[in-house]
Amino acid sequence: MSINVQPPSGMRDFLPQEVKKRRYILNIIKDAYEKYGYLPIETPALERLEVIYGKTGAETDKLIFEILKRGEKLEDAIKNSEQLSEYGLRFDLTVPLARFYANNIGNLPGLFKRYQIGPVWRAERAQKGRYREFYQCDIDVIGSDSPFNEVEIILATMDAFYALGFEDFVININDRRILFQILKSLDIYLRDEVLISIDKLDKIGKKEVLKQLIEIIGEDKANKIMIVFDSVAKAKGSIDRINILENAITNLSGSDEVYDSTPYDQLRLIIDTIDAVGEKKNIIFNPYMVRGMTYYTGPIFEITIQDVSFSLAGGGRYDELIGVYNKYDVPACGISIGFERIYYLMCERAMFPKDIEKNEVFMTVFTKELMTDCLKIAKDLRGEGFNVFVYPDFNDKIGRQITSALKNNFKIALFYGEDEKKKNCISVKNLDLNKQDTIAMDLLVDYIKTQLKV
Amino acid sequence: MSINVQPPSGMRDFLPQEVKKRRYILNIIKDAYEKYGYLPIETPALERLEVIYGKTGAETDKLIFEILKRGEKLEDAIKNSEQLSEYGLRFDLTVPLARFYANNIGNLPGLFKRYQIGPVWRAERAQKGRYREFYQCDIDVIGSDSPFNEVEIILATMDAFYALGFEDFVININDRRILFQILKSLDIYLRDEVLISIDKLDKIGKKEVLKQLIEIIGEDKANKIMIVFDSVAKAKGSIDRINILENAITNLSGSDEVYDSTPYDQLRLIIDTIDAVGEKKNIIFNPYMVRGMTYYTGPIFEITIQDVSFSLAGGGRYDELIGVYNKYDVPACGISIGFERIYYLMCERAMFPKDIEKNEVFMTVFTKELMTDCLKIAKDLRGEGFNVFVYPDFNDKIGRQITSALKNNFKIALFYGEDEKKKNCISVKNLDLNKQDTIAMDLLVDYIKTQLKV
Question: What is the DSSP letter of A105?
């Protein structure tokens, strides 16, 4: 017998203690989203390939797990050298949302705030901290172009982060339209290459980026771009940075017909409102940020933590994605929390409540004859809200049963033998403290409550 | 643009109201399981095909969604006419559990009670009430052969059903070993065919089954089987039925070396204990029940409801499945609740709490200038535990905003204009009752609490 019993590469089994910690995080995120009026939806794990490939283009092509056709369809496909698959596993929750909105438009309000939490699958090379099956937690608003949507999306996410215990995070915000204005002002059309370079400004430094830009667009335009970004360096605070950048861009040659104040006004409004409503000023304007997904059309944001190399959440406005699936464009924006990275960080920083991995009451059993009594006691305790594990193997020695209680991570063990039955009492052991008491049966509930808190 | 925006065949999108009802059920089942000390685990959606095909054999072969190999692996597979896939989507939660146990045995207690709730995928022909992606809710105990495991598995499931509001369900119980004893006593080796016929006794009737059995095993043996089952007809109650059947089987020719009292004793113990601990006597011995999965080795059970053609849950003991993945056999048993059928029935019977589809507070907005105030009010309400939707499009007329509130299923709308601001009050409308009041700001929390209960 030599079946490989490990999960598929890049995927994971979770033990009970791990599931508890994961659920703790998921519940906090879910609560924060629900407090803001985002409503839950669910979509299938599988999508038609035409849906998956609808807009996302080359950057995700290679990441899709495709489902093999079956039966006659497969035979035909092989015979005729056609596609071997028609469905794929979803690689994010944004494309399914756009498809969902188009499919259910008759039953949905024009302005729709939804959240979705669930696994997505990407056939990436598995490596430390990068998985092929992982959870995302998304909120999105469809049907409104108001920048107050961005405000609430950011506030809701901040609330989730605070509730999880993070204080040291920063929200980076930019607007794709500002980047587009810079490029347009300089008659640059090779947008993607130039944007990829600009995105590296705070990673590989000015000198290296300038070198790259010169290669792509020549010295003159490269220098002009650097002057624009240089101007921001002197600024104090985000609003000042936006003002200076706006000014620098209006001064770019030939920029008059390109310049539009909307993105600057919206960024100022978003930042000012968050500062007015939120409790901490941790939102900063980052003019270099581009973000990968090609579908963003306006404000973009990313949540980062000092000394952590990956971002914990990211999103933005994508006013042209719904139109790919729908008859016409519908404005939309959203954010996606990278759940696995938060889980990783919280484990590393030990940010979970005490006893989160512990289970409650473990009932040992002395004889087959006492089993029904034990089950009745367990039933009463369950009625009081406790989780109770009854040990089923009445012939096993108590030592072995307690080993099982410890391995199953229980905090309290009960002992009910003939002696206890005669005296209508029960023995209770706090397994953490290795401390045992015998108490009257009618005091059991209160006693357990106290012990669970110790 | 002609992308098909429907979900894949046999799979579903769920609107917020549907998600709420589904979660309501899932939470009740989860709570019942946790009360019994079953601990949560999670496994990937994908499994290696060698794991999926390890034990389940022909009956599931055709149901597996397989994942197409990628890149070079796929090219090689096509070139060499090898298998085009190495992974498949899980079709149940029992096979993954067996694999999980073998993989994590070093970190698991020998006696392990776990639950798992999640989607599974089967490439069945889609039809009414049968889906290709659906949820299962499983509990299992690994590492114990005590029949008290069956007792607790059944009690936990009964608790879940009661908590959901079902009263009219019946637990059918049988033991595969009894069926095997009958067959062995008559030297019948074509087990599967005969069992499939017996399984139909309470569906297509005695006469038809006898006809089928005669074809398979001849008149003599067919008649002997019918006599055994006929004997049970006169019995009163489950225990009486078990006693009579046991007696009839000991009387079968050549049965002395085959007869073993264990399954009868265990069934009596299971039924007696459930009757002693549980509140209702709705467990019945059904000697015809076989159940499909080939891996069952002992007691089997199925939960049914009168006038409903499908079973709502089913399970049994499978002492030889873990051994397929592990170095040696480990006893195990479990039950699987068919969540989709319960969801279907509860929708049909309107068994959900009043207002389950409703959302809480919808905040309308009069002007851009008042937006920050509105966000602050929303923030305070969220701090009090309410879910608050703030309408982001400050230029929209209030009528349009209220339409959005109704379409989004909100129960309460708030109005905060210049007038309200001056007087430090706020207008509150109960959208269900179409009733509006203006109240002092510091009474808002209590007022909303009252309205949400109306």
Answer: G
Assess: ipTM above 0.90: yes
Q: Which residues of B touch A36 (CB under 8 A)?
A: 382, 387-390
What confidence tens digit (pLDDT) does each residue in A18-41 have?
A: 999 999 999 999 999 999 999 999
Residue with tokens 């060499």: B80
Residues of B in contact with A334 (CB under 8 A): none
Q: Where are the domains of chain B?
A: 7-168+306-357, 172-287, 359-453
Chain A: residue nearest B13 by CA?
A43
Helix (H, G, I), strand (E, B) or coil at A236: coil
The HSE-up count of residue A29 (CA atoms within 13 Å, CB side) is 27
pLDDT in tens, B280-295: 678 999 999 998 778 8
Percentage of chain B modeled with pLDDT above 90: 80
**CA-to-CA separations, B158 to B164, B199, B280, B304, B335, in angstroms, rounded:** 10, 24, 10, 12, 11
* Cα-based distances in Å from B252 to A422, B174, B231: 47, 19, 12
Fold of A1-168+306-354: BirA Bifunctional Protein; domain 2 (3.30.930)
Taking CB atoms and an 8 Å limit, are B5 and A325 in contact across chains?
Answer: yes
Instruction: Give the mean model confidence (pLDDT) for residues A299-318.
Output: 93
Q: Could B404 and A87 be called an inter-chain contact, meaning their C-beta atoms sit closer than 8 Å?
A: no
- Residues of B within 8 A of A277 (CB-CB) are 372, 375-376, 379
**Residue A255 confidence class, pLDDT cut points 50, 70, 90:** low
Res. B235: pLDDT tops 60:
yes
CB contact under 8 A, B48 and A133: no
Fold of B7-168+306-357: BirA Bifunctional Protein; domain 2 (3.30.930)
pLDDT of residue B387: 98
**CATH class of domain segment(s) A359-453:** alpha beta
Q: How many CB pairs under 8 A join A and B?
A: 295
Which burial class, exposed, middle or buried, applies to B52 when counting CB atoms under 10 A from its CB (0-12, 13-18, 19+)?
Answer: buried
Instruction: List all residues of chain A from 408 to 447 with a beta carbon under 8 Å from chain B.
Output: 408-410
